[in-house]
C-alpha cells in the first residue's frame, strides 16, 4: 500500500544495489516498473499473459533447483550445482532467444535449458551419473553442459563464425538471421579460453552474445579476485559493446538480451552482457559457503529476489492474483513430483555400452574391449 | 595416370586442395596459413583460390584455433587446424583431450566432431626449443581421438584427404624434416592405396622387424639397406596409424621374424614403443626370440639443436638396436 502511494508521488528510480549507475534495471527490487529510454521498447509488447508465463518459469526452475538439491541430499544425485538466485538472469535471457538461435551453457543453466524446451530430466542425468550429458544439442539448439570453465566460449564463437560463413547474419530475414549465446560466470572471465573467445569473436565479427552471470562468487573466491573493473567494461578492451544488467530483474534481462541478440543477428556482434546477480546457495552441494562469506550479504540479496520482484509487480499492476500464484505453486508441486519420479527411475545403462559412441566410425579397440568385457562377464555365469 | 615427382609438403598441399574442392564444408584455420601459406608453406596458394572464409588466418592463440574449430564442426563444417609447431600444441591441450575427444560420447552419439589437427612434428631442422618435439603419445593415450602420421609423399597426399573425410577427430602428425623429400607417384589415381588406419610393410625381410612412423621411416629403410649388405634381412613397417594401432600387421611380421625393434624420436619412456612392446609381448610371447627393443629419444627435454644428432635415432642407433635384438 505504502509502495503505491510512493509510486504516485514520485517517479520511481532504479535501485542499483552494488551494481552501480550503469546497471540497466526495469523493475526495482520492490517490483516497481522504472523506465529506460533504450530498453523500454523491448518489453512494450509483453502482455500480462507473457509476464505470467515468465513468473511460472521462474517458479518452476526454482523448484527444479530445490529438487536437485534435495535429490542430492537423498543420495539420488552425486552433485547438484544450484541456480538459486539466478532465475531471472536465466529465464530473461533464455526467453529472448529464438528457436533457431544456439545456446552454449555452463553446467548451471538448468533454467535456460528449461525455457528452451529441454526435458527437465536432462539436466539431472549428468549429476545422477547415468551419462556425461546425454542429449542431442541439435534438438533444442542447446549444447551439452561444459564443466571445464570457459571452454564453451570458444565453441560458441566457432559456431557463430560458422553462422556467419553460412550467410545467416544481417540478411534482414528474421527466420534466417541467427545469434549464438554463450553463458559463463565471473570466475570464467579469468580463463584464457574466454579471453581468446573475445579476441576471435571480435576479429571475425561473430554473431555471439557473451552472457556473463556475475553471481559474485567463484566457489569461495569473490569477484574482486577475478577483476579490478566491472566485468562488462572488459568488452571495451576487446573492441565490442558491454552492458551491465540487473540479473535479478527479469524484464531488464529480457530487454537487454533481446537488444544484444538483435545486434548480433544484424551483424553487429559480438557483445557482452554482465548480468549482475547473486549465487544464493552453495557453488554445488559439495560446497560450504559459511566458511568464506557472511550471512549478512546473503540476507541483503534476499531483498533483491527475482521472483518476489516480479510477483509484486504482477500483483500491484493487477496482472495476477492469489488464484494464479496458488495455481503456479500447485503446478510446481506436480512438476517436482514428476521430476523426482523421473530421477529415481532413470536407468543405468548396461556396462557394455561404455564403448558405444566414442567414435563415429568403426574402431577395433572399442570392439575388442567390449567383446572381452562381455566374455569376462559371461565367465561368471558359466561358473554359477 | 599422371606420374609426378612431388615433395611431401606439396603432396599435403595438393591433398588439402582436393579435399576443399570435393567438399565446400572443408575449412582451414591456423596461424599465418593465409597469404604466407603457413611457416612451412603447406597451405600456399589456398587462400588465394578458396578465399579468406575457407582459409582462415587465426589470431595467435592455439586453444582458440581448436576451440573455435569445435564450434565450426558443430555447425556442420569440417575444419582442418594447423598448429604451427609441435611444441605449440599444449595451449590447446584441454580443447583437444577434454572437448574434441569427448564431445561425441557425451552426446551419446548424437553429434560428431569431424576435424583434423595438423601438427608438423619431430626434430632435425636446427630450431630452438619447442620446435622439434614429438608429442604424439599424449594424444594416442586419449580415447576419442585418432592419431596418424605420414612418412612419404604419396601417403601424405592420400592420408590428409582420408583424415578430412573421417567423421572422427584425427591428429595428423607431419614429419617436418621430410617436407622436402620427393617421390614419384600417380597424382591422378582415383583411390587411395590403403585405408588410413592400416600399417604398411614397406620392405620385406626375415630376421628382424623394424617398426616406426613419420620421419624415422626413411632412416629405417636406410638402415635395412645397410644391414642387407652385412647379410641381415630386415622387414620395415611404416605404422602410419598410432591410434587405432594396426596391431595385426605388427603381430604377423613379428611371428615371422621373431624380433622387433620400435623406433621413434619421442622419448622412450611411455612412448608409442612402450605400448607396442607390451601388446607384442602379450600376443607373440612364444614367437619372440628377443625382447622388444625400443630405440627412442632420450628421456630428457629436447636438447639444443647443436646436440640433436646425439638425441635422434639415426642409422647407427637403429642398427645398434637391431644388433641388440639379434644378440639373443
Chart the SSEs and their pairings.
The complex is a heterodimer of chains A (384) and B (328).
Chain A: H1 2-9, H2 40-43, H3 48-73, H4 87-95, E1 102-104, H5 110-115, H6 122-128, H7 151-165, E2 180-185, H8 192-203, E3 208-214, E4 217-218, E5 221-222, H9 234-238, E6 242-246, H10 250-265, E7 271-276, H11 295-302, H12 306-316, H13 322-344, H14 364-383
Parallel strand pairs in A: 1-2, 2-3, 3-7, 6-7
Antiparallel strand pairs in A: 4-5
Helix pairs in contact in A: 3-4, 3-12, 3-13, 4-10, 7-8
Chain B: E1 3-7, H1 8-22, E2 26-30, H2 46-50, E3 55-57, H3 62-74, E4 78-82, H4 93-100, H5 103-106, E5 116-121, H6 136-140, E6 146-149, H7 153-165, E7 170-175, E8 182-186, E9 200-203, E10 208-212, H8 216-229, E11 234-238, E12 241-243, H9 247-257, E13 260-267, H10 272-284, E14 293-297, H11 308-311, H12 315-326
Parallel strand pairs in B: 2-3, 2-4, 4-5, 5-7, 6-7, 10-11, 10-13, 13-14
Antiparallel strand pairs in B: 1-8, 6-12, 9-11
Helix pairs in contact in B: 1-7, 3-4, 8-12, 9-10
How would you explain this protein's 3D organization?
The complex is a heterodimer of chains A (384) and B (328). Chain A is an alpha/beta fold and 384 residues long. Chain A has helices spanning 2-9, 40-43, 48-73, 87-95, 110-115, 122-128, 151-165, 192-203, 234-238, 250-265, 295-302, 306-316, 322-344, 364-383; strands at 102-104, 180-185, 208-214, 217-218, 221-222, 242-246, 271-276. Chain A folds into two domains: 2-344, Rossmann fold (3-Layer(aba) Sandwich); 351-383. In chain A, helix 3 (48-73) crosses helix 4, helix 3 (48-73) packs antiparallel against helix 12 (306-316) and helix 7 (151-165) packs parallel to helix 8 (192-203). Chain B has 328 residues and is α/β, with parallel strands linked by helices. Chain B has two domains: 3-186, Thiamin diphosphate (ThDP)-binding fold, Pyr/PP domains (Rossmann fold, 3-Layer(aba) Sandwich); 200-326, Rossmann fold, CATH 3.40.50. In chain B, 36% of the residues lie in helices and 21% in strands. Chain B is built from twelve helices and 14 strands. Chain B has a seven-stranded mixed β-sheet with strand order 3-2-4-5-7-6-12, sandwiched between helices. A five-stranded mixed β-sheet of chain B has the order 9-11-10-13-14, sandwiched between helices. A two-stranded antiparallel ribbon of chain B has the order 1-8. Chains A and B meet through helix 7 and helix 8 of A and helix 3, helix 4 and helix 5 of B.
Amino acid at each position: 500500500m505504502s509502495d503505491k502511494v510512493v509510486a504516485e508521488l514520485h517517479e520511481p528510480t532504479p535501485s542499483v544495489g552494488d551494481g552501480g549507475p550503469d546497471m540497466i534495471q526495469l523493475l526495482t527490487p520492490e517490483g516497481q516498473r522504472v523506465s529506460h529510454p533504450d530498453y523500454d521498447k523491448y518489453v512494450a509488447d509483453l502482455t500480462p499473459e507473457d509476464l505470467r508465463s515468465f513468473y511460472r518459469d521462474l517458479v518452476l526452475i526454482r523448484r527444479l533447483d530445490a529438487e536437485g538439491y534435495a535429490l542430492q541430499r537423498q543420495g539420488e544425485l552425486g552433485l547438484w550445482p544450484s541456480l538459486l538466485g539466478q532465475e531471472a538472469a536465466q529465464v530473461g535471457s533464455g526467453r529472448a532467444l529464438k528457436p533457431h538461435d544456439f545456446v552454449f551453457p555452463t553446467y548451471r543453466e538448468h533454467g535456460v535449458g528449461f525455457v528452451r524446451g529441454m526435458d527437465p530430466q536432462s539436466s539431472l542425468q549428468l549429476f545422477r551419473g547415468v551419462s556425461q550429458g546425454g542429449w542431442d544439442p541439435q534438438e533444442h539448439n542447446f549444447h551439452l553442459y561444459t564443466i571445464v570453465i570457459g571452454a564453451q566460449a570458444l565453441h560458441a564463437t566457432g559456431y557463430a563464425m560458422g553462422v556467419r560463413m553460412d550467410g545467416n547474419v544481417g540478411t534482414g530475414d528474421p527466420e534466417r538471421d541467427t545469434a549464438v549465446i554463450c553463458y559463463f560466470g565471473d570466475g570464467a572471465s579469468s580463463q584464457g579460453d574466454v579471453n581468446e573467445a573475445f579476441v576471435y569473436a571480435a576479429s571475425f565479427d561473430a554473431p555471439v552474445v557473451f552472457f556473463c552471470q556475475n553471481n559474485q562468487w567463484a566457489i569461495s573466491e569473490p569477484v574482486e579476485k577475478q577483476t579490478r573493473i566491472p566485468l562488462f567494461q572488459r568488452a571495451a578492451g576487446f573492441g565490442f559493446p558491454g552492458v551491465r544488467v540487473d540479473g535479478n530483474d527479469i524484464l531488464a534481462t529480457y530487454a537487454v538480451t533481446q537488444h544484444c541478440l538483435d545486434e548480433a543477428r544484424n551483424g553487429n556482434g559480438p557483445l557482452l552482457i554482465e548480468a549482475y546477480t547473486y549465487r544464493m546457495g552453495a557453488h554445488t552441494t559439495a560446497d560450504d559457503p559459511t566458511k568464506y562469506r557472511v550471512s549478512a550479504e546473503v540476507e541483503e540479496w534476499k531483498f533483491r529476489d527475482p521472483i518476489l520482484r516480479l510477483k509484486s509487480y504482477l500483483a500491484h499492476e493487477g496482472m495476477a492474483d492469489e488464484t494464479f500464484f496458488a495455481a503456479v505453486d500447485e503446478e510446481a508441486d506436480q512438476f517436482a513430483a514428476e521430476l523426482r519420479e523421473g530421477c529415481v527411475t532413470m536407468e543405468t545403462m548396461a556396462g557394455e555400452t561404455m564403448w558405444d559412441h566414442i567414435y563415429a566410425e568403426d574402431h577395433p579397440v572399442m570392439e575388442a574391449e567390449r567383446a572381452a568385457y562381455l566374455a569376462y562377464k559371461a565367465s561368471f555365469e558359466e561358473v554359477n | 595416370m599422371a606420374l609426378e615427382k612431388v615433395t611431401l609438403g606439396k603432396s599435403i598441399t595438393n591433398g588439402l586442395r582436393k579435399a576443399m574442392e570435393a567438399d565446400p564444408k572443408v575449412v582451414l584455420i591456423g596461424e599465418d596459413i593465409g597469404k604466407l601459406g603457413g611457416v612451412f608453406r603447406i597451405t600456399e596458394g589456398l587462400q588465394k583460390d578458396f578465399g579468406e572464409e575457407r582459409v582462415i588466418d587465426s589470431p595467435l592463440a592455439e586453444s582458440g584455433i581448436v576451440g573455435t574449430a569445435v564450434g565450426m564442426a558443430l555447425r556442420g563444417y569440417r575444419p582442418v587446424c594447423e598448429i604451427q609447431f609441435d611444441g605449440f600444441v599444449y595451449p590447446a591441450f584441454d580443447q583437444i583431450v577434454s572437448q574434441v575427444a569427448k564431445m561425441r560420447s557425451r552426446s551419446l552419439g548424437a553429434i560428431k566432431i569431424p576435424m583434423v589437427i595438423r601438427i608438423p612434428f619431430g626434430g632435425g631442422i636446427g630450431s630452438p626449443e619447442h620446435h622439434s618435439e614429438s608429442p604424439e603419445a599424449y594424444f594416442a593415450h586419449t580415447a576419442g581421438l585418432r592419431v596418424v602420421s605420414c612418412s612419404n609423399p604419396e601417403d601424405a597426399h592420400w592420408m590428409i584427404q582420408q583424415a578430412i573425410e573421417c567423421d572422427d577427430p584425427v591428429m595428423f602428425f607431419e614429419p617436418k624434416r621430410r617436407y622436402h623429400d620427393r617421390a614419384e607417384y600417380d597424382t591422378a589415381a582415383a583411390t587411395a592405396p590403403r585405408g588410413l588406419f592400416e600399417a604398411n610393410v614397406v620392405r620385406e625381410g626375415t630376421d628382424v622387424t623394424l617398426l616406426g612412423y613419420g620421419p624415422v621411416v626413411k632412416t629405417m629403410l636406410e638402415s635395412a639397406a645397410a644391414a642387407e649388405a652385412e647379410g641381415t634381412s630386415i622387414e620395415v613397417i611404416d605404422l602410419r596409424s598410432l591410434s587405432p594401432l594396426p596391431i595385426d600387421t605388427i603381430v604377423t611380421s613379428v611371428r615371422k621374424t621373431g624380433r622387433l625393434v620400435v623406433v621413434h624420436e619421442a622419448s622412450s619412456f611411455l612412448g608409442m614403443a612402450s605400448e607396442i612392446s607390451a601388446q607384442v609381448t602379450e600376443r607373440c610371447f612364444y614367437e619372440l626370440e628377443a625382447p622388444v627393443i625400443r630405440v627412442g629419444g632420450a628421456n630428457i627435454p629436447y636438447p639444443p639443436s647443436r646436440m640433436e644428432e646425439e638425441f635422434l635415432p639415426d642409422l647407427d642407433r637403429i642398427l645398434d638396436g637391431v644388433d641388440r635384438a639379434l644378440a639373443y
